[in-house]
Amino acid sequence: MSTEQTATQAPSENHTFFVNMDFSKLANDINNGDVAHQFNGKGRKVTYLTEEQELTYFYYSSDSAGEDKITPPFEMSDGDTVTCSLQPWNNGDSESNKAKFKWKNILQNRFDLHQVSTENKAQVTYKAVITEGVTETDNVIINIHFKLNGDKFSIAWDPQVKIKK
Q: Can the peptide bond before residue 11 be classed as cis, meaning omega within 30 degrees of 0?
């Protein structure tokens, strides 16, 4: 890398956001058929949440208390990292707080997010890596597992991440 390139590149940033999920509402809606699902053959109910369903079952925040809500799409620069923490939606539902949950992996990573570490089961860090020719928000399908009242679930969704140069 030349000196000129180094001078024009911005330093990479570290971002953090929290995914506040209503585990009990989601589990109930899957169990009663309001949210379509399949079985994976290992006793786990698997579903993909659309953008509209995301609003019903979880939201993003920039703080662990869940008060500073943020809305996708998320824009990151090439080389930035983002740490995502999964936690129960603080809506007074004690059932949601009983859920056992963890990040599983990226199901579909067509482009720009690469998992670099898992700090613990509820926290994962991704690095943004620009892909040439990509100009739209990428399809990065993220997957989590959770268990509530003996039922096992696998939930996937697209957090709408856009990597910019």
A: no
**pLDDT tens digits, 65-80:** 999 999 888 888 888 9
Cα(86)–Cα(6) distance, integer angstroms: 35
3-state DSSP helix/strand/coil % of the chain, to nearest 5: 15, 45, 35
Residue (of 36, 38, 74) closest to 160 by Cα position: 74
pTM equals 0.82
Instruction: Give the three-state DSSP class for 41.
Output: coil
Per-residue pLDDT reduced to its tens digit, 11-40:
678 889 999 999 999 999 999 999 999 888
What is the pairing mode between strands 140-148 and 58-61?
A: unpaired
Bridge partners (DSSP) listed for residue 15: 82
Q: Are 20 and 58 in contact (CB under 8 A)?
A: yes
